[in-house]
Design brief:
Layout (H helix, E strand, L loop, with lengths): L17 H8 L3 E2 L6 E2 L7 E5 H6 L15 E4 L8 E4 L2 E2 L11 E5 L2 E2 L13 E8 L13 E7 L8 E9 L3 E11 L4 E12 L4 E2 L10 E12 L5 E12 L11 H4 L7 E2 L8 E16 L2 E18 L9 E20 L5 E22 L13 H7 L4 E23 L4 E24 L5 E27 L5 E11 L2 E2 L12 E2 L2 E14 L4 E20 L6 E23 L2 E16 L1 E2 L2 E2 L11 E14 L2 E12 L17 E11 L5 E8 L7 E7 L4 E6 L4 E9 L1
Parallel strand pairs: 7-10, 14-17
Antiparallel strand pairs: 1-2, 3-9, 4-5, 5-6, 7-8, 9-10, 11-12, 11-40, 12-13, 13-15, 15-16, 16-18, 18-19, 19-20, 20-21, 21-22, 22-23, 23-24, 24-25, 25-28, 26-27, 28-29, 29-30, 30-31, 31-34, 32-33, 34-35, 35-36, 36-37, 37-40, 38-39
Subcellular location: Cell outer membrane
GO cellular component, one term: cell outer membrane
Membrane topology: Multi-pass membrane protein
Amino acid sequence: MAQPALAQQAPQAAQADATTNAADSGEIVVTAAKRSENLQSVPISVSAIGGEALSKSRITSVDSLVNKVANLQLTSTVGDNTPIFALRGVSMSDFSLNQSSPVATYYDEVYKGNFAFLGIALYDIERVEVLRGPQGTLYGKNTTGGAVNLISRDAKLGETSGYANFGYGNYNRFDANAAINVPLGEKAALRVAGTYSKADGWFKNVNPGFPDLASTDEWGIRGTLKLEPSDRLKITLRASHSFQNPQNYGIYAQPEAVNRPGLSQFQIDSNVPAKRRAVTTSVALTLNYDVSDTLAVTSITSYDKGSLFFKEDTDGIRDQVLEVPYFDRASQFAQDLRLTSNTGGPFDFILGAYFNREKVFNETTLEVLNGTDVDGDGFVTAADCAAGLPVACKVRNQFDQVKKSFALYTDLKYKLTDALTLRGGLRYTHDDGKQTGFKSDALGVDDSFVANLIPLSDLSFKQNNVSGKIGIDYKLASGDLLYASVSRGYRAPSFNAQAFFTPTELGVAKAEQVTAFEAGAKTQFWDRRITLNMAAFYYTYKNQQFINVNPADASQQLLNIPKSELYGAEAELTVRANDSFTFHGGLGLLSTKIKEGIVSGVNVAGNRLSNAPSLTFNASFDWTMVQGNFGSISLHPEVAYQSSQFFENINIPRLRQTSYALFGGHLDWNSSDGRYSISAWARNLGNKFYFTSRIDLTGFGLDYNHIGNPRMYGVTAGVKF
């Protein structure tokens, strides 16, 4: 029986590797618009990176995507594998573990909102797609900033195949990852993939008897069962589990003369040995059914749960000035149901319904000067907390949070002519949130109760929103695409997780809204050997949510910046000069300005938004230097640059991160039959020292800083079968 035409267009992951396609034919297949389409035909600003390119560049966590995508940034305030993304300056200026980013992360079309769900993402990956701008008419969850789509390799029917890779690097790093695909009869297949990594800490601890920080210790496993009982029905069941238990990150405290006397850049004097622990479990069922040759139904049902614990040595020194244990436990159920048409005529649509329920338990403790003998009796006890509150206290808050989101969305396109297409979409969203059982207590160093600071409290919100998009695109006779659009994105209200000392810190931040104007072009020249994609944008940004940390006492409030303005552009260039040489480059330009806002009594109008460098640039090339019966040797150098930026909205000069560039790459040997490979790789080859997050804590005598990873290098060997 012939396969229905729509099966080729159904919203499922394309099988071809994005980078391989680009190298062979100049075509990259993506599912950014919920149909398998050539990237050059999608009127959206989207960057696509193939899984093979990610693996060879040692992009093993989503954090490192910022070196590959123009105008994508992150802060790492809560550590590796839990990035806080910023895209075109739209960011979550909050490190609370109960929050969800305005740049959504999806694993195989399943939204992962809470930090506890992220786990180990980048293994056995088909490709990554980064969509810029508000999302809501195509995606289950609405966002103001964009979406990062991680698409794993699918199980393949009728094929027995697999691979295994093993690597060793500096800091005694050992990596292993593998996958196997086996057929289960003619209509089913199973794919199992796993990863394991372990490395010593690179932040060397000079405190005797205490471990080095920022180590690696993690593993993950994923199973994918694919069933095709008929030509019209495709069923995919995915289940995954991951575990991480490294030494936690370290804090680089300034000024160095006070907090780091005699220490080199990658040394620390820390008294906190607690390991970081993150556990995730995920199950997702995807059904694709072709109702007819022109109509398909897609259902994605998912359940996630996870927990995240780490104790941060916030002061970054041996003395017990400020230390913060964080704990987050979360679960999520989500259902996305949509109807997709592919009539072959002028009109097509996507009609969807989405439901998400997220439940979170959050507990955070501020351990303030816990070595201080306030009453002078020679001992540090609960009596010292009572006498010096909050000095010598553990100030602990905890709460439960439930958020529900229900939405109806549609995305429409109508071909006015063979060349001109009108597009539009609407979304209705109802969000309901409850924060219950919030309390904050002052405890002694022995965890005994001393005082209640914030009585048992409940907060809630309900929000209805209508957002949407309208656009037009024009396909030239050459096949190049011009497009323009206006869209509006929405992000639900949020609860403050960082209230500790008084009930006035409790609150609900207003919903965010971004109105985005965008125009772009997707072009190819020289027999499709040159691909140049460009986009320009202008945003109005209302009520950006951010956490404001009072530097004097570490009290924190969740606030809104009433109005900001953002504009800029991106350009991505690929040049396939010949079969042996390909160049890739990306350029991002960005200007941000706060139009209205007060932070800690300071008028911040005219300031730049956080996490918004004005220039980002990345470049690489793939050069097959030698090829023969012995195989091929290829060189792949890379560079990523970003200009200066701030990590907070007051734009404190001393907390400005200056511009920097990171260099890396890999040198590969591949056997002539493609079965065997050896790769020597390096990242941050120049051992550049730079900050990835900064907070003013001068009340505790320090500036709080995260720093980027130092030079990493190693060798990886692989086999395919």
